[in-house]
Write a structure and sequence with these properties.
5 strands; five-stranded mixed β-sheet; 6% strand; 369 residues; mainly alpha
């Protein structure tokens, strides 16, 4: 089978190039070897032709160069040894860092695990709280519990300073009725408008937030109107001219004031005082101080009455004492007369009797036993 002429030409040309390259390399090696031998021979000839002085200088220079090389070699060896020591220290440091990293990683893993567990528990509690607060009745109970905590902090006692769920003459039952001096009372209801507030927090758009905000403010106004229609302000029951509405969450209370700043004034015009936990605490502290001051004032008046009665009795006592002293003085005077004047006069009479007896030799009869 005959080959393609073009392929034959290409193969031949490649073989030719390869042969030329091999021959060229061989010649170059032979030339380099010849040059080396020639340079060596020239060097030996030049060394032989040198003068003894130049030869000695050259040998001295060569020896100095060898010493310098030896010193550099020792310095390099020392540097290498130092580098080995440094590398060993670095290796130990890296091992310590690796161990510390493993320990830290283990601690971090443990902390992350604990955090995950705590987060899970907190999530469960949050879900339970959301479930509980989803009921208006449960929110009311929770608000009453918050109010009781505030009352306990102010030192007020149930049955002494306030009553719970006490029905009034109209049949309504305020959550709390506070007892004030002179038989006065003030009623308080717990209100927790939460649904639309949570809707506002979870809203995804501005329109939804504005809608929930309007509904929330409407809820608060509804609670205000609700307490004004329950006969919590009643002169026949000796109540104050105001009723308290307790909102048991600072965030909800702050949100209300932020979105509707005039709502507090609007409530006051309807004789309703809106309170959060902090403001209720401040109000009850002032109320407690006023009650204590009234009791102190009443006690002071009673003490003044008792002091007046005591003064009257004291004056009568001192008058009787003076009279008794005068009587004692009279008795003392009579006693002095008895032991002085009367005794002296009796002694005179007895002396005269004794003189008569002595003159008449009359013997007095002896007293019979």
């Amino acid at each position: 089978m005959s080959m393609n002429p073009v392929l034959t030409f290409i193969i031949g040309f490649a073989l030719g190039l390869l042969s030329y390259y091999i021959i060229h390399r061989m010649r170059k090696k032979e030339e380099e070897a010849g040059l080396k031998e020639a340079f060596k021979a020239m060097s030996m000839d030049a060394f032989k032709e040198m003068s003894p002085l130049l030869k000695e200088m050259l040998l001295t220079q060569i020896a100095s160069g060898e010493k310098d090389l030896e010193g550099k070699k020792q310095l390099i060896d020392q540097t290498l040894n130092n580098m080995k020591g440094d590398l060993s220290n670095v290796e130990k440091l890296m091992n310590n860092l690796e161990k510390d990293r493993e320990n830290k990683f283990g601690e971090l893993t443990t902390q992350l695990k604990q955090t995950a567990e705590q987060t899970g528990k907190l999530q469960q509690v949050t879900e339970k709280l959301n479930t509980a607060l989803s009921s208006s009745q449960a929110r009311g109970k929770w608000g009453e519990r918050m109010a009781e905590d505030v009352l306990r902090l102010t030192g007020l006692s149930e049955g002494v300073n306030y009553e719970k769920q006490q029905k009034n003459e109209s049949g309504n039952k305020p959550d709390f009725t506070f007892k004030l001096p002179k038989g006065l009372k003030v009623n308080m209801d717990v209100k927790f408008p939460l649904d639309n507030y949570l809707g506002f927090l979870n809203a995804g758009s501005r329109v939804e937030r504005e809608n929930y905000e309007k509904k929330f403010i409407s809820d608060v106004r509804g609670r205000i109107k609700e307490v004004t229609t329950r006969d919590y302000i009643n002169a026949e029951e000796n109540t104050l001219d105001y009723v308290i509405v307790f909102i048991p969450n600072e965030q909800v209370f702050a949100f209300m004031n932020e979105k509707e700043p005039l709502l507090m004034d609007e409530a006051l015009t309807k004789k309703v005082v809106l309170c959060s936990p902090l403001t209720l605490y401040a109000l009850l502290v002032i109320m407690r101080q006023a009650i204590d001051n009234f009791k102190m004032e009443a006690t002071a008046a009673e003490v003044l009455k008792l002091l007046s009665a005591f003064r009257k009795q004291w004056e009568e006592y001192t008058g009787s004492y003076v009279k008794l002293g005068e009587k004692i003085d009279e008795v003392k005077e009579e006693f002095s007369k008895l032991v002085t004047t009367r005794k002296n006069k009796l002694d005179v009479v007895v002396g005269k009797i004794e003189n008569l007896q002595a003159q008449s030799h009359i013997e007095l009869p002896e007293e019979k036993e």
